[in-house]
Each structure stands twice: as structure tokens, then as C-alpha cells.
Amino acid sequence: MIPRIHKRGQRTLGLLHYLYGPGKYEEHTDPHLVASWDGNAPDPGRDGTATLKQLQRLLDQPLGNIDASERPGKHVWHLSVRNAAEDRTLSDAEWGDIARRMVAAAGIDDPGPGGAGCRWAAVRHADDHIHIVATLVREDGYKPGLHNDAARVQAQARALEAELGLRRLSKGDRTAAKRPTSAERHKAKRQGRERTAREELRETVRRAVAGAAGETEFFDRLAAAGLLIRKRVAPSGDLLGYKVALPDDRNKDGEPVFYPGARLAPDLSLPRIRERWSADDHGQGASTAAPASPPVPGGPAAARRQAASAAWTALPPIEHGEDSVATACIAAAGEVLDALAQTSAAHTRRELRDAAFAFERASRSRVRAERGHDRALRQAARELVRSGPALGRGEDGATTAMAIDMLFFLVTATAHWHAKREHAQQATAASRAAEHLRAAYQATAAQPLGALHQRGRSLARPLLRRQAAVLHTALPELAEQVLAEPGWYALAATLTDTEAAGHDPTTLLTEAAGRRELGTAESVSDVLVWRLRRTAELPIDTSGMAVGERAAKQSTRRAEQRAPGRPRSRHGRS
Q: Comparing C-alpha atoms, which of 332, 238, 233 is closest to residue 280?
């Protein structure tokens, strides 16, 4: 439940005309009163003999009880109370009770016996919200004290959510993007849009920002996405701001509906976007996460490997670094998610898009980001966009699974970071993003891990026993758990590949496990597979594992040669 106190006004009749009218986009339906100060106010919506002028005169009557010089300049108090989209539809009686409790909490009305309060009326013109209009002069001629009224109605909203079984909202920090209005939601529904124009524009602008190197590239991306763009230019020629519109989103006069960047989200204003570019251009601060990388020449698969590495190296700053550094890395992680969502295959695109959409709320807080520490992540986002769309199979698909796996840990760390600082909304958003990433991972990892699983099952028993011994040496506490997991065979195949590539599998496995705890992982073996293959730079294309198969056969022969009692030729071969 979201209560919002609007700017005070001086025309009661004008506000009533809007509340009882059709709305800006014909979104108001059946406007009527659900409650008033005495329960007997005339209702122009349901009573054919009542007029808006009559209601206005009754509301403003207390103004005549004081001298004109003492009347408040803006005497109209306006509160809207809106439910979440997933909440049940409340009855008029429930909305009436909500209105009475809200005006009491704000100090507008005194519900006690003989209490002297302000006159007010609650109008409902949609299923999900009401508007309360009040005159800021009490019946006895005194003006109410409304200090901190916003905090009091918010506290009342939290209590009502619990009592009425509504969605429980967390206390915000005023860094959230503005919610779509009821008019925007009704318009999207009429037009058959999945999301409102505001939400579509916010997502498109975020994607255009992801990894962009400067203003030219940013605006080129907006134009390529088909948005209408208007720039605000100073007399000196300097660019001051911008606003965007969907070509088919028009007002009643047929003109495009433009939204400034700051109205889409606080971090999408031009000055805030420029902060990212400024850090890139001038190298402000040493990068804690990792140095910026040169362009990736290997296409989508190489770009995804870079994204996985950048996500992995950003974990320590988020978990143990300064808050300003962690904030920068968290914001840049949002860019990587946006870039991955727009370049991944169709079967994962929806979940990745939803993950990026959810994480957007987690990418902002009151902690100011120290830009420059996020260069590796921003570079990874840039390379994801530059490398173009990835296939859903082969090395592209497998490295997508690797990147998602690393980003899952990064997003989970972000949820913990926000939770420790009591950023409830951001922690919840990061947790939702993690669930979408989990679903995307399951969709894209099944094929490459399945192929590795088959390779692992085909390894000779002596080689499997040797890889199990490596596991016991490197991870004595988790070895038995891993051996019981379905993913053990994929890990055994990966350990074989690391050895064939010239690495010491015990050392590599110990390092991979030691970088971060594994006890809470859903599948320890899966996590270790991706860490090992990323660290050892092993190919993951399982559609034709000729190289891996040759390596496995070589390792199998070596294992068989070491088996006791095995006869050997003069050259050491059986």
C-alpha cells in the first residue's frame, strides 16, 4: 500500500473536477465517495441531485471561521492511497475504513468523541486506489499541525497491509524509480502492452547505457532502438538533458508522450550517466575489482568469459570493500545483466530480462558510488553488446551458463550487502533477480553439463578413482557430498581436462574452492566445474569434444599404466 501526499493546493473545486472527471486518459471509472468527515457529505458520483459545487462549499466552510488574513495560502490537502497490482480488490467499506485511519494518522481528523477535525472526503474512481481531499482548517477554526504527516501515514499503511493481508512493502530511501500511474497502467492495458510506456522506456534506456563509452554512442543506441529523442541544449550549445518517447505512445492530441531521463529513474538523468563516462575517460580511482580489458576478439563466447571473470573479481569489493566501491560494482553489475539479457538466446532471454528488470532497484541506494572501480564490469557489458547476439548452443551457450553462474553469486552477494545495511527494498529486488538467474542458468546449463556428465561416465574406473582422490585431497569436508551429486561426473571430466591442459588439478581445485564458501551452493560440483573451466581457460563447447576426448583417452591410458599389477611393455605401455 503506497500513500502519497501531493503538493498542497488552493482550488478544492478544481481537484474535485479531476477526481470525478474521466481522467487524463479516460481511466477514471465510477467515481464516488467511500467516506467523509461526518459520513453525510453529498456524493456527486452516486446522487443525481448533488453537485461538485455543493461538496466544495461544505469542505471549505471552516475557512469562514477565521479571518481571511489567517487562512493558509494553500488550504487543500491531497492524499492518494494505492494498492499493489497483485493485491485483492478491496470493498468500498474497506477503503472507507482506510481513509478514516489515514486522516487520523496524519492529524487531519480527530476520531475521538467531540474531536475537532478538518473536513475531508475520500473519492474512489478505480479498483486499486482512493484520493482524500481535506481543507486545512479545523471545525473550531484552528489549523492542524501536520508535522511529519508523511511518515505517519506510511506507518499506518504498514499496519493496514498486515491487517488486510496485502503485499507488505518495505521502507524506501527515495531512490526507487517512479511507479507507473494508474493512467499509464490503464493505457498499457488498452493497448495490449505487457508493460507501461514508462517501464519500456526505462528498460530501453538502461540497455543503451550498458557499457556505452560516451554521449554519441548512447544516443545512437537510443535511436537504433526506435525511440524518439529530444535534447535540451543551452544557449551556449552545451547539452543539458534529454527525454525520450515511444513512437506509438501518444496523448489525446496525437503527440508523443516524452519522459525525461530523471523521471524514468534517478540514475538515468544525463548528469548521473555522465559520471560513468567521466570515470572511464579520466581513470578516477584505481580499479579494485580488475583492470579494464582490451576489446575481446573472440565473439560472444569470449565476451561471456570476460563477463564471468569480471563478476568473479567484483565479489571481494562487494563483500569486503568500502561501501562506495561496492556501490559502484553493484551498479555496474546491473549494466552487465542488461547487456547479457539483450544478447542472449531466446530460451534464456525472458528470464535474463526479468532478472535485469528486478535488479534495477537493487542497483541504487543512498550510498554514493565511487566510479572507476567498476571499469572491468562496464567493459564486460560493453563487450557483450559489441560481440552481438549469442547462439543458444555450443561455446556460446556454455559460456552463457558460466557467466550466469558467476552473476548469480554476485547478485546474491548484493542481496546480502543491502540486507546488512537495512536496504530492504534493494535486498528484496536482488533476491528476486537471483531467482530469475537461477531459472536462466537451469535452462542454459543443461546441455553443456549433460555432455560433460556423459564424458565423465565414460572415463575409466582407475581415472575416476584418481579424480575422486584429488577431490578428497582438495575438499575433504565436501568430497562425499560432491561424489553423491549428479554433477560429479562433469567435474571428473573437467579435472581430467585441466590435467591434460598442463595444470595440477589438486592445486587448481583447492584454489577454486578457497575463493568462496561452497556449503550453501545448490550444486557444489556445478559451481566447481565453471570455476575450473574459467580459471584454466578450458573450452566448453560440448557439441564436438574431440580435443577433450583425446585428452581423456590420454589420461585414461596414464591411469591404467599406474594401476598395480598391470603388465607393461618395454616402452612403459600395456
A: 332
Say whether 259 sits in a helix, a strand or coil: strand
d(CA 76, CA 199): 31
Q: Where are the domains of the chain?
A: 2-164, 181-261, 283-443, 458-562
User: DSSP assignment of 369-392, as one string?
Assistant: P-TTTTHHHHHHHHHHHHH-PPPS
Q: Cell digits for 516?
A: 568462496
E strands in 187-293: 228-233, 239-245, 259-260
2-164: what fold?
A: BirA Bifunctional Protein; domain 2 (3.30.930)
Q: What is the CA radius of gyration of the chain?
A: 31
Per-residue pLDDT tens listing for the chain (574 residues): 889 999 899 999 999 999 999 887 678 899 999 999 999 999 999 999 999 999 999 999 999 888 888 888 899 999 999 998 889 999 999 999 999 999 999 999 887 655 678 999 999 999 999 999 999 999 888 888 888 898 899 999 999 999 999 988 766 677 888 888 878 888 898 889 989 999 999 999 999 999 999 999 999 999 999 999 999 999 999 999 999 999 999 998 999 999 999 999 999 999 999 998 876 655 433 344 444 445 456 799 999 999 999 999 999 999 999 999 999 999 999 999 999 999 999 999 999 999 999 999 999 999 999 888 899 999 999 999 999 999 888 899 999 999 999 999 999 999 999 999 989 899 999 999 999 999 999 999 999 999 999 999 999 999 999 999 999 999 999 999 999 999 999 999 999 999 999 999 999 999 988 766 676 678 899 999 999 999 998 987 544 444 444 444 444 444 444 444 444 333 333 3
Q: Which three cell numbers stand for residue 484?
A: 553423491
Angstrom distance (rounded) from CA 45 to CA 48:
7
Could you tell me the pTM of the whole model?
Answer: 0.74
Written as nine digits, the cell of 341 is: 539479457
Q: Which three cell numbers stand for residue 364?
A: 541504487
Per DSSP, helices labelled H in 245-373 are: 261-264, 270-282, 299-320, 323-343, 346-362
Sign of dihedral through CA atoms 89, 91, 94, 99? positive
CA 303 to chain centre: 22
The closest alpha carbon to 288, from 268, 315, 309, 266, belongs to 315
d(CA 488, CA 470): 12
Helix axes 524-535, 299-320, angle to 10 degrees: 110
- Dist CA 377 CA 331 (whole Å): 9
The three three-digit cell numbers of residue 106, written as one number: 496524519
